[in-house]
Each structure stands twice: as structure tokens, then as C-alpha cells.
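Figure S7 source data.
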Amino acid sequence: MAEEIAALRWDEPSDGGAPVVVLLDQTRLPVDEVELVCADVPALVRAIQTLAVRGAPLLGIAGAYGVALAAVRGDDVDQAADVLAAARPTAVNLAYGVRKAQGAFRAAVEAGDGGDGAAGAALAEARRLHADDARASARMAEHGLRLLGELVPRGGYRVLTHCNTGALVSGGGGTAFAVALAAHRSGELRQLWVDETRPLLQGARLTAYEAGRAGMPHTLLTDNAAGSLFANGQVDAVVLGADRIAADGSVANKVGTYPLAVLARYHRVPFLVVAPTTTVDFSTPDGSAIEVEQRAGGEVTEFSVPHAAGSGPGQAAVAYAVAPAGTQAYNPAFDVTPPELVTALVTERGVASPVTGDSLAELVVR
Ligand code: MRU
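C-alpha cells for the predicted MRU complex:
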């Protein structure tokens, strides 16, 4: 079995040097497995914004370690927390992780702990979130696999997924990908259909990488080929993640999710969202209130290809123009799927189905 992926770690050099946050640089995958060392909050914010570290649960963990980093360095923790929380607006886990670590730091300060004690409290909170996420992954995989068995009773699942939701986004096995991996390990996965996920190709670069390492049967497709797969009856379930789930059950996830939900409904295919309860945000009332990150048009008008030679940290090396110079591009990073198109939400606490404000509240608040 391939070595487990460690997407992020806190490193305290044995020579007594300053601690750092070490990331597996996701902009360089699958060509190169290289680490990116973040020694301060600005470096970590750059890594978050360039998607060297990405995916909702991992962003929360990274944000919490970022606060710990600021505290250890003696930086202004509140200011660092604000900058970290704002680095990407849609994935609510980022702000959640940041505020949890900041809260632990403040509580320790108020309790009279000195700088080191308060920094230790922030770090302990980051470590706790990291470990919690690993446990949540395992529970989501169990619940998701059971649900697949109920919805697709003949087994031999052909599962379509979008973006990347595996160990690269988590302290554990991930969210939706962990369900597919559990199906594979139980001998029930016939096919993982991997959407390439334009424009940044998280499916092609990252999900295909993880599926290949795990020995899962998988096939890559362009996003616009998904419709023909449904039309040909080759999808038993859509299983994907979420970046924010509003109080009414609306799901923000990687752009391209909503069209899959519409396709799934038309073709009567179960559409499952897998996310930890930390992705549910009751302070966002509905889908229209979710801030959708808009990214640079160059991600659409150019192909950026990860390439080992000549690339710097957090950067893809080679960009090819695919549109005439000056072309305007529309590049939302996420879209919002209304709850009525979601068959079920799978969390570490169990399953909400149908997905409504009430079923969410019952699952998350109980
Ligand atoms: O822009 P990204 O790559 O951070 O987007 C990630 C996604 O949309 C994932 O599907 C989502 O975070 C769920 S990951 C468990």
C-alpha cells in the first residue's frame, strides 16, 4: 500500500530553530511531491491563496496552525487571525479553524498564561482540530458507505466525483473520496469517474493521483463529458464535498457541482454531499448569502501546468494562453446547489436526508 499522504504538518526543528508549517505543495502535484515550508503567516496566506494548501477541512487546520505560528513568533495574533480568515472567503472551515485557535490563545491569555503558554494553547487547539478531522473522515466514510449500500443495493458502484476531497484536504482520509475509498476497500467500487475540474484541474491532478496511489479503478473525464455518462446510465451515485453549507442546506462547492446536481436529478441518480459538521454554517441563512470566491481570469484564459523544472514554491511553472490576449473571463471558484437537489448530506454524526434546515439543525445541534 502506498505511504499515507500527509498534506500538512507542524514541524519543530530538532536544532531548536523556530517552528514552521510544512505543506505538501498541491500546485506541484502530480508531477512533483515537494514540501512548502511556511515560516510565517504571510507565507501561509500565500500558500492558501495559490492553492498550495486547499480543500475545506484542511484550510481549517492550516488556519489554526497559522494562528499558532503567529503566537509562537510573538506576532499580533488577532491581526494574523483576521488576515488568515479572510484569505479565502467561501470555505467556512478556514475561519472556523482560525477562530478556534484564536479563542484558545485568548482564553489562555485571560487566564494569565504568558506568551509561551498561550501559544501552546493555540497549538494544542490546532492539533486537536487536526486529529478531530481524521476521526471525522473515518466516520463519514462509514456512514457514506452504508448509505451507498441502501441507495444502490446491487453494489458494484460507479461513483462520479468532482474536485478533490481525499487525504490532500484532510487530517485523515478526506470526505467524499474517503467514501469511495471505503467502497473500494470493501470490494464494491466498480468505477470512480473523476471530473477533471476546470480550471485548476483538482480532479485530474489530485484526485487521479490519490486514486492511483490507492489502486482504485478510476477514469478521468472532462467536466463537460459528465452529461453523456448519465445519459448512458453509467453513474450510480454522485459523491462530492462542500466548502460551506448554509442553514437551509444550500451547498457551496467547487464550481461545476450545481450542473452535476441538475444532471443527477434529471437522471434520478443519488447526489450525496459528504462534509464534516464544521462545514455547516448556521450564520449563513441560505445559498444567496454565501460569498463565492471570484478568482483571476488568467486561470481560465491560460492553462497553468505543474512542472518540476524552474517552478518556485506555490507556483505552476508553465502557463499556456488558450484565449486571445485581453479576453475577459468569468471565474467563480464555487457554485451553490439548492438543498432540494441534494439526496443526502453525510457527516461524521450521521446522515441528513432530505436536506432541510430542520434536518440539518437536528443533526448538527443535537
Ligand atoms: O478551491 P479548492 O480546491 O480549495 O476547492 C475545494 C473543493 O471545492 C472541495 O470539493 C471542498 O473543499 C470539499 S473538500 C473536502
